[in-house]
């Protein structure tokens, strides 16, 4: 089964925020910890900051060589 990580990340983000609101409103720490878990998983699945950077120079250098 193939799933879209960005879509799942968005769903987990929404669920995490909802559980956080429920946890704060009811003063229940279980909901708060579940929300933290959902938010962390959301960041891990859809975060661009985890992707390695492309190593390469500026494109303008390749287009106009020095004479």
Secondary structure blueprint with pairings:
Blueprint: H1 5-26, H2 29-46, H3 59-63
Description:
By secondary structure, the protein is an all-alpha fold. It has a domain of 29 residues. It contains three helices and no strands. Helix 1 runs antiparallel to helix 2. The protein is elongated and about 50 Å long.
Oligomeric grouping of the chains: single chain
Determine the structural class based on helices, strands and strand pairing: mainly alpha
Query: Kindly state the mean pLDDT as a whole number?
Result: 79
Overall shape: it is elongated
Helix content: 55-70%
Low-confidence blocks of residues: none
Name the beta content range.
under 5%
Q: Give the beta-strand count.
A: 0
List SSEs in N-to-C order: HHH
Major sheet, described briefly? none
Radius of gyration: 20 Å
Distance between the termini: 54 Å
Number of helices: 3
List keywords for this structure.
67 residues; single chain
Give me a quick take on this structure:
The protein has about 70 residues and is mainly α. The protein is built from 3 helices and no strands.
């Amino acid at each position: 089964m193939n799933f879209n990580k960005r879509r799942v990340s968005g769903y987990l983000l929404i669920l995490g925020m909802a559980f956080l609101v429920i946890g704060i409103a009811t003063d229940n720490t279980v909901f708060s910890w579940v929300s933290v878990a959902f938010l962390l998983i959301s960041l891990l699945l859809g975060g661009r900051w985890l992707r390695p950077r492309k190593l390469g120079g500026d494109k303008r250098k390749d287009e106009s060589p020095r004479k």
